[in-house]
Automatic annotation (TrEMBL):
Protein name (database record): Aspartate aminotransferase family protein
Cofactor(s) recorded in Swiss-Prot or TrEMBL: pyridoxal 5'-phosphate
SUPFAM superfamilies: PLP-dependent transferases (SSF53383)
A GO molecular-function annotation: aromatic-L-amino-acid decarboxylase activity
Sites bearing N6-(pyridoxal phosphate)lysine, chain numbering: K292
Keyword annotations of the record: Aminotransferase, Decarboxylase, Lyase, Pyridoxal phosphate, Transferase
């Protein structure tokens, strides 16, 4: 074995050892940042070390600070685990080391990504001619899509953003729902769209933007060019904006419609849940993640733009030294050098097939319903949302007890959930996004809460 083979063998063995601990290891890490810095920090040695020794040492030192995200009972935030096929594919992407911005340089990985993009459009019921840029996640996807939107709505006003820049341009207004994801505001900030340029439309009790509120918000924009940002899957409730009402309203007002469907867009891939996404296909751009619902390794999201000319207008690189053909990754994403992060998506979809994707999304939903049923049986627990999709939110009678319960479950280790605020109360939020969660995992989680609730209510 040469040094490279020994390093890979060490990584394989450490990776399988780690994965084998998932069923029983505490979901939340047992070491905090300070302890981890003790374990991995210190001055850099003068001399190097053999590769396999470094890999073994790395795995051993990192272990107590690792989170069981690829396991079956990590329900915090909205974070997916990793299916076997994309995990293997991701290792190959590293071994191949293809700098995948251009089909001229790396035809294999660009072809795999292009195919994965076509499959995604098909599964999500989006226009087959849209551009798909594989980016690091929904945050960057929101940025990419809103960048294309900003340039397009300005172009319709006769303003060429690429030539004339933003100074002196018509004011672009961004209409957002009251329960948009924070990454939308952040993307707006990257784009020179400030908080004062946002117009917020009110939401119903589940966080869905109301049609009357959208009409009002559009009215507030006057003659300014407008981008409307809607949502498929609110992070707390999992609720979907009513697209058949909202999209035509926005388009009648001349707005560009963007939909953030980081995890929600995947409902379209399930015949049983697709009703939630009706009307989504009429938008102009879409954000979704592969590292959440599709369970590929971090990081991977998709920026989808109906008319590829709108993404090219922002991202295509000028300059003679760069070769490009039809629609290359660097025409539709901000990076030049980039990892072929769409290749694990190809592998995930190939391993699941259309039926497997539908079953995956439906299983996440059924797990959410099972968790809801179990939690309802525990005295003192109130379910806060309508469980239409993958999110379950609950609380105890008082906020301090709810927060104590959140801390207690992390400490106890059976599952991880996220604390949040909803309608003026502390809540705990559970997101079903791991392919490996089974009925027994839901049962173990409910049992753990059943033990902890009386203790935290009494405290
Ligand atoms: C997770 C999430 C994001 C941010 O996605 P990243 O993949 O973390 O960049 C944006 N919008 C929604 C609705 C999300 O759930």
């Amino acid at each position: 074995m040469d040094e490279r083979e020994r390093a890979l063998a060490a990584a394989h063995s450490a990776a399988t050892d780690f994965l084998a601990t998932l069923p029983e290891r505490p979901v939340w890490p047992r070491a905090d940042l300070a302890e981890m810095l003790e374990r991995v920090g210190g001055p850099l040695d003068e001399e190097g070390r053999p590769a396999d020794e470094v890999v073994r040492e790395l795995a051993e030192r990192a272990d107590p600070g690792l989170v069981a995200i690829p396991g079956a009972r990590f329900f915090g935030f909205v974070i997916g685990a990793t299916l076997p096929a994309p995990l293997g594919a991701d290792w190959l992407v590293s071994a191949w080391d293809q700098n995948s911005g251009s089909s001229t340089l790396t035809p294999a990985t660009v072809a795999l990504e292009r195919t994965a993009g076509e499959w995604i459009l098909d599964l999500l019921g989006l226009p087959a001619t849209a551009s798909v840029g594989f980016v690091t996640g929904a945050q960057v996807s929101n940025f990419v899509c809103l960048a294309a939107a900003r340039a397009a709505v300005l172009r319709r006003r006769g303003w060429d953003l690429a030539r004339q820049g933003l100074y002196g341009a018509p004011r672009v207004r961004l209409v957002v729902g009251a329960h948009r994801h924070g990454s939308v505001d952040r993307a707006a900030r990257f784009l020179g769209i400030g908080q004062d340029d946002l117009v917020v439309a009110a939401a119903d009790g589940e966080g869905r933007t109301l049609p009357e509120a959208l009409t009002g918000a559009l009215g507030e924009c006057g003659d300014d060019p407008v981008v409307v940002c809607l949502q498929a899957g609110e992070v707390h409730t999992g609720a979907f904006d009513p697209f058949p009402d909202l999209v035509p309203l926005a388009q009648a007002a001349g707005a560009w419609v963007h939909i953030d469907g980081a995890f929600g867009a995947w409902a379209a891939a399930s015949p049983a849940l697709a009703y939630l996404t009706i009307g989504m296909d009429a938008a102009d751009s879409w954000t979704t993640d592969a590292h959440k619902t599709l369970n590929v390794p971090y990081d991977c999201g998709m920026a989808i733009v109906r008319d590829p000319a709108d993404s090219i207008a922002v991202f295509r690189t000028g300059g003679d030294y760069l070769m490009y053909s039809s629609l290359d990754p660097w025409d539709v994403t901000p990076e030049l050098s980039r990892r072929a992060r769409g290749v694990p998506v190809w592998a995930a979809l190939r391993s699941l097939g259309r039926r497997g994707v539908a079953e995956l999304v439906e299983r996440l939903h059924l797990n959410a319903l099972a968790l809801e049923r179990g939690l309802r049986e525990i005295p003192g627990v109130t379910i806060v949302n309508e469980v239409d999709y993958t999110q379950v939110m609950f609380r105890l009678d008082d906020d301090a007890a709810t927060r104590a319960l959140g801390a207690a479950i992390l400490e106890e280790g059976t599952a991880a959930v996220t604390g949040a605020e909803w309608a003026g109360h502390a809540v705990l939020r559970c997101a079903m996004s791991s392919w490996s969660t089974e009925e027994s995992d839901i049962r173990r989680t409910v049992e753990a809460f059943g033990r902890l609730v009386p203790l935290t209510r009494g405290s």
